[in-house]
Amino acid sequence: MGYQIGLISLGCPKNQVDAEHMLALMDEAGHTIVDYVDGCDIVIINTCGFIDDAKKEAIENILDTVELKKEGIVKKIIVTGCLAQRHKEEIAKEIPEVDAVIGIGANGNILDVIEDVMVASEKIESFPPQSELPLDGQRILTTPEHWAYLKISDGCSNRCTYCTIPSIRGDMRSRKMENIVDEAKQLAEIGIKELIIVAQDTTSYGLDLYGELKLPALLDELCEIDGIEWIRLLYCYPDRITDELIETMKKQEKIVHYIDLPLQHANDKILKAMNRRGTSDEIRNTIEKLRTEIPDVVIRTTFIVGFPGEDDEAFEDLATFVNEIGFDRLGCFSFSAQEGTPAYNMEGQVEDDVKLNRGDIIMQDQLAIMEEKNNEKIGNTYKTIVEEYDSYTDSYIGRTYMDAPEIDSVVKFTSAEDLEIGDFAYVTIFDFDEYDLIGEVR
């Protein structure tokens, strides 16, 4: 018997890929998948539990769905994902209306959970080892028809002192290269033009499986696939930006000159306390090498302010670093103390108002950097992929190679000729609005 199922997926792209695997299993089994929750037999909430804001969002979604269940609008609720993996006891105890709480290792058994939850009178709990999370298999994409995430591994073997990922997802497990390539070919066959490579630690790909860093070799294989025009790299650790990887980015035209380096800090004392590999000078050298070898490279990064022990001097080092390097894209987050991590009980915890103030300083500095960089782009023409059409203004929204979807800036532009979503156009920039570029197809 098929059920009507709605799925709410929260958090990062890796979690989104997990949801897409579950959607494919449910669809193949004959269930009806809908993009709403009202009237559903089952609502599955695929949660994120990485930081406090993500946990809050997940809990709010669970409680909202619980209210719908009380009103008879939905019948059953299944909670999975990182929050369920990490806080199973709390969810089971404090939100009794949830019918099933399952860990990420149970995602591959979602069909059994669905059948059981519809007949069970008691709460279902299932927490197999995280290593049982399926990394291969069919997906129903929840991204637009022209781009998709391609997850090449799951879990993380780094032990950053602020991070819960290893305890939630386990050590890094790389997928077999041939399986990744086969999936990428399938994506190309259905019209995907841009692959966005994701993992918790993309640059460590292959180390566990092959005993060596295999990202460059994987990229070479992916670049051979017809139909794929752009390949984008996210979540790259700076200490594993090898000469081979840089050379691969240079020689392969399909790899866009964009790289995401989550640096987290620039003060050596804080980097050491975070258990990050490498020093501030080594990070500078990596960035310098990238910019020397690939002059038009766009570097995105993220920083954490207010980590325990971040005194005024350490923060000043970070602010100076941000202004000296001049990142093309930057996100900044306040440290969020997570239970079970070494940083949770570290001395030198920073007050919340100080964290917020420091974050504001970094982002104000970054806005000035972006304005300067965007001003330099006026008059330039960029290959742009069309994401949306705005009928009200008769204009389009798109992305250049400089922007990853959903996290970076956009280009707002007009075109005398009609364009389709997923088309490429060459847009000449004539203005900008803070982070976003404004242009026209000539």
Tally of individual helices: 14
Main sheet makeup: 6 strands, parallel
Mean pLDDT metric: 95
Q: Which stretches of 5+ consecutive residues score pLDDT under 50?
A: none
Share of residues in helices: 25-40%
Strand order of the largest sheet: 2-1-3-4-5-6
Radius of gyration: 22 Å
| Cα shape | globular
Q: Care to count the β-strands? A: 19
Query: Strand content of the residues, in percent?
Result: 15-25%
> N- to C-terminal separation?
55 Å
Overall structural class, as computed from helix and strand content, comes to: alpha/beta
List the helices and strands and how they pair.
Layout: E1 4-9, H1 13-28, E2 32-34, E3 42-47, H2 52-70, E4 76-81, H3 82-86, H4 88-94, E5 100-102, H5 110-119, E6 124-126, E7 147-151, E8 153-154, H6 165-169, E9 173-174, H7 177-189, E10 194-198, H8 207-210, H9 215-222, E11 230-233, H10 243-251, E12 255-264, H11 268-273, H12 280-293, E13 298-305, H13 312-325, E14 329-334, H14 352-377, E15 381-390, E16 395-399, E17 411-415, E18 424-433, E19 436-441
Parallel strand pairs: 1-2, 1-3, 3-4, 4-5, 5-6, 7-10, 10-11, 11-12, 12-13, 13-14, 17-19
Antiparallel strand pairs: 8-9, 15-16, 15-18, 16-17, 18-19
Helix pairs in contact: 9-10, 13-14
